[in-house]
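Task card 7
Instruction: Convert sequence to structure tokens.
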Amino acid sequence: MAQPDHAAYRCTSFGHRSHGPIWGCQHCGLLFQWPLPDGSALLDAYGCVEDPIYVAEKDNRYLTFRRVVRSLGPAADRRLLDVGAYCGYFVDVARERGFAAEGLELSRWAVERARALGLTIHRATLEQHALVGPRYDVLTMWDVIEHFSDPRREVEHARALLCPGGRLFISTVDAGSLAAKLLGARWPWLMDMHLVYFDRRTITMLLEDAGFHVERIGTYTHTVSGGYLLRKIAASFAGLAPIASVLRRITPACLAVPVNLGDNMLVVARRRG
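Output:
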């Protein structure tokens, strides 16, 4: 099997609809890539990721995170761990909000930038941190769970890191959304870096089976720049690329655009026991 290309695992990857074979479970309907990349090679690829476009979008990432942090409720100095913290922008927002916030991240490049902000970021996997880490009141996984080759195992590690009654907040693409169903194989979020595709039913089944109670599921809004959005459209739909190119010339590159097509979900679950 070819070694994973670390560029395909950037948060801002433009590799839409480039992926291995995607299968569906006949029992539960879960969609997943198969064969999966080699586990150690995948960890190495994430460790090598560099993503300057993400840094260029910093202001809009902060807008996204300042909106979603409100869904976590009062901070009250609660301990929070952001899994897949990348450059630490959500950890920074949570800290501003009053949480005792830390992060987990694999990318050496991203960890360096997060620590430069004065943030506590652990370069470790969930499994490694669950062995030594303290317990938290809140865990967040923003656009992370679809990257796990074994999401059930990772959710169990997340549960081990949570205090009884602690809450897990997840955002992930929704394969059962209207947009996903209408676009089918043309849905842009079918990508190499996404190994598992949940819908509301399968994410609920996973979490409930792993010792959580799902309290609510809604949609998740990303804010991006106009220039970045048009680049995404061009990469996702080749037929629209000429139009997107024209619009990029007349659209302010820094224009902040909230994007919510209903195909990203926000899941809130509470640890049982």
